[in-house]
Amino acid sequence: MELRQIEAFLAVAEELHFGRAAERLRMAQSPLSQTIKKLEKGLGEPLFERNTRSVTLTTAGHSLLPHARRILEEVDLARRAVSAGTGTIYGKLAIGFSGALNHATLPPLTRALRQHYPQLEVTLHGGLLTQEALQQLGNGALDLAFIGLPIDAPSLATRRIATERLGVTLPADHPLAGQASVGMAELAGDPFITMPAAQGSTLREVTFAACAAAGFRPRIGQEVSDPYTALSLVAGGVGISLMPESIEGIMPAGIVFLPLEGEEVLLFSGLVWNPVALSPALRAALRIAEEVLPSPAD
After folding, report:
1. Mind listing the pLDDT tens digit for each residue in 186-196?
2. Strand 144-149 to strand 91-96: parallel, antiparallel, or no bridges (unpaired)?
3. According to the 3-state scheme, what is the secondary structure of the chain?
4. Do the beta carbons of residue 14 and residue 25 sit within 8 Å?
5. Same domain assignment for residues 128 and 276
6. 49/132 same-domain check
7. What tens digit of pLDDT does each residue of 32-67 get?
């Protein structure tokens, strides 16, 4: 298997058209077809189904596709490494986050990374709750993620970056909205907007624990994956939701945020990564994170 064969395969697989793939590679269509045939002969499997109207990937072609992309990415990284100066960090870094809950912690890290390592390609993947983030860290789709703590994932490493008190978000016309604070027991009759149980939200778990400590089980009005969507539903009068105090600065109109009375309800959040996949880019990101997102004092 040669590099030019991999490049040819990937062009055809992404274009699903030999003519367009040949234009993309700046070569004639006949040599491209011959290159693909040689690759298929070497692998012993057809990679494409061809007819006069369409080109589609076979099962073998689908199996080869992610590996072909990874091979070309590694070649690109090798070329950058050869041309990079001493101390230059290059490559790619995929960071996962939930959304609104990370509005105070994600921007400082991404700004610092772009400032210190302009050649590092940072991609952000939002809308991820705990379970999906852990899965993507495990399969290599993510390098680093912002997540609620603690987690049950012994193979992953974590570092706490924030400890926040929870309060309750209420519609502005809620009977309790005019109070300076509210007790959890006063919320027993309200429907709660929460994250889905199947996605393993730490915020959901803390909410249920706070309700249990107050002597009731929350009645779920609706489940949503995005915290800002939850706030929008609160504004629309669908229900109420427990949120960290930092959310108060970005709430939509029509909501009030009230502190909780009595014992503090805390949400711990942090960074999580796979320690067996420590690339130079991830090491650099973790170093920068220690500077801009120091661990809170206990």
Report:
1. 999 999 999 98
2. parallel
3. CCHHHHHHHHHHHHHCCHHHHHHHHCCCHHHHHHHHHHHHHHHCCCCEEECCCCEEECHHHHHHHHHHHHHHHHHHHHHHHHHCCCCCCCEEEEEECCCHHHCCCHHHHHHHHHHHCCCEEEEEECCCCHHHHHHHHHCCCCCEEEEEECCCCCCCEEEEEEEEEEEEEEECCCCCCCCCCECHHHHCCCEEEECCHHHCCHHHHHHHHHHHHCCCCCEEEEECCCHHHHHHHHHCCCCEEEEEHHHHHHCCCCEEEEEECCCCCEEEEEEEECHHHCCHHHHHHHHHHHHHCCCCCC
4. no
5. yes
6. no
7. 999 999 999 999 999 999 887 889 999 999 999 888
What is the structure's pLDDT at 279?
85
Residue 112 lies in a domain: yes
Tell me the sheet residues that pair with 222: 193
What is the pLDDT, as a whole number, of residue 92?
Answer: 84
For 45, 69, 118, 281, the CA distances from 114, given in Å and listed in that order, are 44, 25, 5, 12
Q: Domain span at residue 257?
A: 162-267
Same domain for 281 and 203? no
Residues in the chain: 298
Distance CA 274, CA 222 (A): 33
Predicted TM-score (pTM) of this structure: 0.71
The domain boundary, picked from 83, 116, 146, lies at 83
CA distance 143 to 110: 14
Cα gap 162→295, rounded to integer Å: 7
User: Are both 56 and 140 inside the same structural domain?
Assistant: no
